[in-house]
Amino acid sequence: MENVFEITETSSSEESEDEKVDRIVHPTKFLNRFSMKEYEGNRNKLFTKNIIRKKIVIDSQSYYFGPLMGVHEFSETEYARRQALGQNFNTSDYKVQFDIKRDAALTGYPSTLVTANYGIFNNVIGFRLSKAMIRVPTYNVNKTNNVIKYIEGFGDGYTVGSTVHSITINPGVYNAHELAAVFQKYHGSHTGELDDSGNPVTYSVFTNTHFCNYSDINVGSGTYDASEGTFTRDVNTFTCKFKERDANDLFKGDNSSGGVDRVNLTDYYRGMAFEITGPTDTDITIIWNNDAVSRGAAKLFGFLPRTSDKTSTGYTQENTKCMFSDKIPDLSTQFVDLVVPEIPSIACKKNSNGKDIIDRIQLEAGHGEYVYYEPDKEESKIQNYFSPIRLSKIQIQLFAWNNELFDTQNSDNSFEFEITMVKDKRLLA
């Protein structure tokens, strides 16, 4: 379309030529009668938009600084820096630089730095998650929930002079019975399972803390009688049992009927719970609220995040005080919270730990499987804008429910973000 304008002039014979020039009206239409205002509106929508939206895809595997084969291409300082980055890389906490270009590959080896060159985003006023792909941790017992803290005697765990001991469970995939057995299995114990005849299942498997470690140096290894096929636990260790049914089904009330004697059954008329027995002849207190990891262990075993001692919360079993789950144990992983520290809080959600999160990603899949997540469509229509900022990098952080970094076991993840920018900041004045 030619930019030729229609000029309207006055036709009064009484006006001078100068007056006629002064009364020229600003053009409103092209020669083809198409409205200039409409044209400018369409042009701005298509080519000169005031608001620009850009989508970027972040892939964790593109930001790994791999080990270097030699220092001949780098200074010693740069070599050491990149080695450290490679060794400490964590897919639950990594940085993405937008303005770094791909390094040339070393001769005979792949590139040590692979990073997309997004460019720097200026005048950013909006940021939100469009899609995510993340793997549910392969292990349901991991470094966010695998440590139990306890003291000898009674107390809250913070008494001056009290030695806080720990039991660290090796990360892995456990069902409830396997989790109960990590402390020790020994002949004559049962896990709460019943055989076809309704009697408690008895194990004769020698394991002895193959799957957990005690910080207390006084904890021994127990003794195993090969001729008898029996194992006797060390007096300073714990035992744990998981029962699926309530006391009426599982425990008959006396040994003659094939059950196990219980002096006090008041707290035992529930199934789906752990029974934890501490060291023999020693009063202990488990500090389920010692830190974030011990809170994770409490959720795992079905205890409230508080202190538990063998007397106040337990019952007498064969002259031994035991602790019993407060609620149904939870071995699942429900969600992960995504945090990008560079984004202002007004564009984020606030979780119960006080963190500003971009979104909470529901992990609706089994352990070891990938989840493909998209925010709710109705919710995604709502976006809070913020004062313009400059984005040259972002940090991807993933947190578990207890405010610990999510244990991805370095499985890869990817995120698609929508970045909203304003072309002219003066429009916001």
Question: What would your notes on this structure say?
Answer:
With 429 residues, the chain is α+β, with helices and mostly antiparallel strands. It folds into 3 domains: 48 residues, no CATH class; 183 residues, Jelly Rolls (Sandwich), CATH 2.60.120; 178 residues, no CATH class. It is 12% helix and 26% strand. The protein is built from 7 helices and 22 strands. The strands form 6 sheets. Strands 1, 3, 19, 20 and 22 form a 5-stranded antiparallel beta sheet that branches. It has a 5-stranded antiparallel beta sheet with strand order 6-5-4-11-12. The protein is elongated. The protein starts with 16 loop residues before the first helix and ends in a 7-residue tail after the last strand. 27% of the residues are buried. About 14% of the residues have low confidence.
Q: Class of the largest domain, according to the CATH hierarchy?
A: Mainly Beta
- Put simply, the count of helices is 7
How big a fraction of the residues is strand?
25-35%
Shape: elongated
- Rg over CA atoms, rounded to whole Å, is 34 Å
Distance between the termini: 35 Å
What are the low-pLDDT stretches, counting only 5+ consecutive residues below 50?
Answer: 4-10, 66-72, 102-115, 247-268, 312-319
